[in-house]
Amino acid sequence: MSNTIQWQLEPRHSYLEFEIRHLYITYVKGMFRKFDATVTSNGTDFNEAVVTANIDIASVFTNDDERDAHLRGADFFDSDRYPQATFKSTDISGSNGKYQVKGMLTIKGVTKETTLDVTYHGRNMDLDSHWVGGFSMTALISRKDFGLEWNTTLLAGGGLIGDEVKITAELEFIEGNQ
């Protein structure tokens, strides 16, 4: 990469959320309060970029202390044994600010190829005169693919929670070459 830029996540203006079906009638949302990511690109051309991310599993937050403890426990993330989830890109394709980022996602010690749909919204200068790039990201994963299999059967049939997890993020990255 001739014009390599190292982009560092700006955590105060970024969030990482998830949602999953609950009782098959609604969705429960949660977020990870602590995560970090970097992007190494050739200028603002992201087709050859490298994306890495680390998520602190113990930072899971769903606005319910009991549920958060259950998610950190062995039934779900087992955060004592697996304190981080990670992502590293393997291929990026796209144009006009719309990208598909393929990579290896590791949760609870299980690694699977995952595709992220990413939109680059451009860049602007912040109040400290740093160039900042804005991105939106979505992905769908099966929680069972990563060993997150706990569920309970409802009296009316079906499980308490669904399998498909929607992951969304709004991310700001500060350009490192300033």
TrEMBL record:
SUPFAM superfamilies: YceI-like. Transmembrane segments: none annotated. It comes from the Bacteria. InterPro entries: Lipid/polyisoprenoid-bd_YceI (IPR007372), TTHA0802/YceI-like_sf (IPR036761). Residues 6-174 form the Lipid/polyisoprenoid-binding YceI-like domain. SMART domains: YceI. Pfam families: YceI. This is YceI family protein. It comes from Mucilaginibacter straminoryzae.
